[in-house]
Fold each of these.
Amino acid sequence: MPHRSNLSLESPLLWRKRVPPAALAGLAQLLALLVCGFLLWLPLQWGMRLNLAQALILESLCAVAISYSLRLPGWWLAIQALFVPALYGMWLLALAPAWYLAGFVLLASVYWSTYATQVPLYLSRRRVWQRVLEQLPTQPGLRFADLGSGVGGLVHYLARRRRDSCFSGIEAAPLPYWIGKLRALRQSNALLQWGNFWRTDLGNYDVVFAYLSPVPMPALWEKIRREMRPGTLFISYRFAVPGVVPHAVIEMRDLGRTQLYLWRV
Ligand SMILES: C[S@@+](CC[C@H](N)C(=O)[O-])C[C@H]1O[C@@H](n2cnc3c(N)ncnc32)[C@H](O)[C@@H]1O
């Protein structure tokens, strides 16, 4: 039965895709500690003991091997190799626990749900904002949304140049949201909202912009097709929608050879 054989082929990959890489990395470290503990215990039976440096190297190797078998991307392998040695190094520094708490709160307020969304904060530049401004329809009363607006740079820039229109940014992470909100205080046509853009109705906008990552693009395209009105515009910086040809591509002519993709819905 072809249906059953498809399932058995796909299911291991499916669960792997559903679990965020950060959770897989944590699982790999736990397994590595267990395996490493066993491998350290084994030679003790014959009176041999590994020193600390050897134990750290062994743990790193276990973590990398397990992460590799879980198909974590290459840059995760480097993180996994350094994780426990770095923990040990931090322990040697003997910092007060409050520093760890402060570091955690700061990182959490910037990266918030990145472990799940796989969309970290990195900011687009003025050159991108200029190209986006050039693409906006000229009619007044335009409604624009930046999905994941970061510190609100694009929203602020556009709102100052198109006072006839309304520019919204939706951002999930608290610290970037507050920075954007404060920047837009004196800009009545800029609206920064703290929230999850997956819960925002895109039918309210004439132009939607996103600078996210490859991960959400297929689902975002489905949402756009469901909610945006015919004739409206979707612009994505850097990340294309797999298998959907844009109606225009603008080369940014920068070092990274990045592109702006435009789709007329
Ligand atoms: C690559 S940054 C882009 C920032 C900004 N648009 C720019 O061009 O400078 C992506 C932002 O999207 C935010 N983000 C990711 N998923 C989100 C979601 N579901 N709802 C709201 N914001 C989200 C992240 O917190 C991050 O700040």
Note: Residues 131 and 250 are 8 Å apart (CA to CA).
Amino acid sequence: MNRKIRLRHLIYGLAGLAAAALVALWAGLMPVTASSGHWRITAWALHWVMQNSVRTDALFVEPPDEVDDPVLVRRAAGHFDTACRFCHGAPGAPAGPLPFNMTPRPPGLGHAAHAWSPAELFRIVGHGVKFSGMPAWPAPARDDEVWAMVAFLRALPQMAGPDYARLSGRAATADAGGSLPARAGCVACHGVDGGSHGGAVPVIGGQRADYLAATLTDFRDGRRASGIMQVATAGLDDDMIARLARHYAGRQPEPDPAAPADPAEPARGTAIIADGMPEARVPACSACHGAGGADPKPGIPRLAGQNAGYLATQLQLWRAGTRGGGPRAEVMTRAASGLSDADIRAVAAALARGDGSGVYEGRQP
Ligand code: HEC
Ligand code: HEC
Ligand code: HEC
């Protein structure tokens, strides 16, 4: 009997406390002002919860073999400058003034690579942090882009101001003055001529203008997935897209001597491009992209001379059904579904070399 009464008192007491807390929240007594900062214990508790959550999530992440590839560092650097520096700052380039008034204030990232493992950085950059303002990656299907950002964060502790200016394209943008692609923000990553920058970005110089315009619109409207390019195209109107497409279509970038050599056997790739693989229901690529991928039909991209790493990634995305694109993108999902990893490497290498296409005739790759 006695024990029953004590239990009842305990329940009444807890219910009373909960009601008082609810009244306090309803009356607006809990401050949500960023200007007042966190109590020290709140800041500690939130960070502790965040660390534990990231650590547990990261148990299920398998890092790729090559986490610190310099090509990846370069691929992510320009995006860091437009999408992250404003909050976190960078070597020789300070954060914007507003994030100083955020709660929590975004930390500098010079030591993030020491504090977190690659898998943990992957979770933070890929998924963001609730209640803090740290955003998630805009394209959930693009793990490969998130890994590029992890490579960049790992290179950050050793990076001096001038390195950052070169890698992020700030220097190139300043050199390009007020030209159209500089004003649109493209020069940082694609330069004025649209070359591959050592394999960091696709070659867009000399690509068909109709394809360039269509695919830029697909990025902008969210039909094609890329956290980097969706951000880069978000503010472009149709007229600007058409002008940028004409600009890059009219360029002829030098073949990139720094493009990584691919060890794949190209003869096999050349055969798939010309004849397909009927047994695996893979069509001949040349039927739409032209001989050697150099002479495509209207609206279809030229592939000869494109960078091998980019081609392989796109084919993998298609095979997985996550690349996106225009109304005819479905044909590529079907074309890629019968390709093995080895086929993809071989086809990408053959296309990059321009085998059987004549694109490099008279030019030194
Ligand atoms: C709107 C501001 C904002 C932007 C933009 C932003 N972040 Fe953050 N980021 C934060 C805040 C705030 C935290 C602190 C989160 C916490 O500790 O709970 C954070 C935390 C981090 C951390 C963990 C740092 C540490 O030492 O704990 C990493 C890594 C990071 N951000 C990377 C990035 C990258 C990469 C980008 C760009 C893709 C980016 N952030 C964009 C606000 C931002
Ligand atoms: C921050 C770096 C960055 C900026 C800025 C940027 N790009 Fe890109 N661009 C990339 C990367 C990386 C890719 C590869 C995307 C992928 O893997 O899906 C790409 C892809 C593209 C493609 C697709 C090429 C193809 O063959 O399908 C086009 C077209 C393009 N960019 C044009 C532009 C234009 C025009 C601008 C300026 C408005 C621009 N980009 C700004 C990095 C950038
Ligand atoms: C029936 C026509 C057709 C065939 C056959 C075809 N493609 Fe495509 N391909 C397309 C179209 C259309 C696109 C553009 C899709 C979009 O972005 O909307 C494309 C795009 C691509 C791209 C993306 C290029 C870039 O710059 O992003 C690659 C890579 C590619 N194809 C490789 C291949 C390979 C390899 C084969 C042969 C195994 C092949 N294609 C066969 C029609 C075809």
Note: Residues 2-26 form the longest helix (25 residues).
